[in-house]
Design brief:
By secondary structure, the chain is of the alpha/beta class. Among the domains are: 33-112, no CATH class; 214-375, von Willebrand factor, type A domain (Rossmann fold), CATH 3.40.50.410. Helix content is 44%, strand content 11%. The chain has helices spanning 3-15, 20-23, 34-44, 69-79, 82-94, 105-110, 115-124, 131-159, 179-186, 227-240, 267-271, 282-290, 314-325, 346-355, 364-375; strands at residues 190-191, 196-197, 214-221, 246-253, 257-259, 299-304, 329-336, 358-362. Strands 5-4-3-6-7-8 form a six-stranded mixed β-sheet. A two-stranded antiparallel sheet has the order 1-2. Helix 8 (131-159) crosses helix 15 (364-375). The longest helix is centred in the middle third of the chain and has 29 residues, at 131-159. The N and C termini lie far apart (70 Å).
């Protein structure tokens, strides 16, 4: 193919199928990028709505190609490098709302596990049923475990000690078998027909007994804008829970408060329990967490929220004042993700800082350093 012919083919790919008639005479050897054009048009043709024959319902098939979502995913994975595939999958979910991707088991299994897919699963998990839920949980666990491995190194360095590998998730011994927790965690797997319980995971007690531990209370706003922070908070809480010098409580809230401290060692259970969206009552959540304080001088409360309180700021300020005056340390994280970019009610943040609380956005690794430094 000559350079001129190659250039014309590229222009046809850029301009799309509407330019086919105008370029027909120039495409002497035919259009060389037909399959790429079909795959791109399947997704980006949605910009034109019904004008281009895009089906708005079902699996998102496109006339005349009749591509289905599973076929489209299979083909883009064959045609493009990994980075491009992830970009296209993210566009399909975020920009064009092809949420059927997450309610079809085969399609879900074919997708690349990553942070964006994790967030979409959490946002749409209530629409999933049957085997799709199990597939989604496997993906969530895979992504969470990858994130945890990256973060554990930073936490080890921050606390200059080793994570307690004898914790329930790693050290297995009949003497340490936690019967009650194993039953409680696996009740959801009870089969009423066969009257048997499938043990998805077995739990064991820790051998190392905590001696005068620091009490870390992590209180997380589960509103939709805080999704990244919710994910990292759950992961950080599970890693902190392995440290024998820390006792971890995990509370999530919107207008209601849910204590997930009993599930802190398994961030997947936590994430599959959150209900993203809804209102926000920070004061109510902080008031609940006050009741979890046992030894104020060895307690840190970390509130992860943008400080936009739908119930008004006065209860939140009053609770913050009581916590600080008790001798406990109070941190407000307006955002916790890898980019450390949080949106915040600046007036509320200023008031909290004036009361003696620390207010900041930070990466998960920075939070570990922050807590470790405050313990010295």
């Amino acid at each position: 193919m000559t350079s001129t012919q190659e250039m014309i083919n590229r222009w046809r790919l850029i301009l799309g199928s509407f330019s086919q008639d105008a370029l027909e005479g120039m495409l002497v050897d035919g259009f060389a990028y037909g399959e790429i054009d079909e795959l791109m048009d399947f997704l980006y043709g949605r910009e034109y709505g019904d004008e281009r024959g895009v089906r708005q319902e079902g699996e998102g098939s496109l006339d005349p190609s009749q591509l289905t979502v599973p076929e489209w995913i299979r083909k883009i994975r064959r045609m493009f490098p990994k980075e491009v595939v992830e970009r296209l999958e993210n566009e399909a979910l975020d920009r064009y709302q092809l949420t059927d991707i997450l309610t079809d088991k085969k399609v879900l299994e074919s997708m690349q596990p990553n942070m964006n897919l994790l967030k979409n699963i959490l946002a749409l998990k209530n629409r999933m049923q049957g085997d799709v839920v199990d597939t989604a949980k496997r993906i969530v666990r895979q992504v969470v475990e990858e994130l945890s491995k990256k973060l554990e190194n930073d936490i080890r360095q921050s606390f200059s000690g080793r994570i307690n590998r004898a914790a329930s998730s790693t050290f297995r011994s009949s003497k340490n078998f936690d019967f009650k927790k194993t039953i409680r965690k696996n009740l959801k797997n009870y089969d009423t027909e066969t009257k048997t319980m499938v043990l998805e995971r077995i739990y064991f007690n820790q051998r190392i007994k905590r001696f005068n531990p620091w009490n870390i209370i992590i209180c997380v706003d589960q509103s939709g804008s805080m999704m990244d922070s919710v994910i990292y908070s759950a992961i950080m809480a599970s890693i902190f829970a392995k440290l024998p010098i820390l006792k971890i409580s995990l509370v999530i809230f919107d207008t209601e408060v849910v204590d997930l401290s009993g599930y802190v060692d398994d961030p997947v259970d936590v994430l599959m329990s959150v209900q993203l969206g809804g209102g926000t009552n920070i004061g109510k959540a902080m008031n609940y967490c006050e009741g979890l304080i046992e030894t104020p001088l060895r307690t840190m409360m970390v509130v992860v929220s943008d400080l936009c309180d739908g119930a008004g700021h006065r209860p939140m300020y009053a609770s913050a004042k009581r916590i600080i005056e008790s001798g406990a340390k109070l941190f407000f994280l307006t955002g916790m993700d890898e980019q450390s970019q949080g949106m915040v009610d600046k007036n509320a943040a200023g008031v909290m800082a004036s009361l003696g609380a620390k207010v900041a956005s930070c990466t998960p690794g920075s939070l570990a350093g922050w807590i470790a430094e405050s313990m010295k």
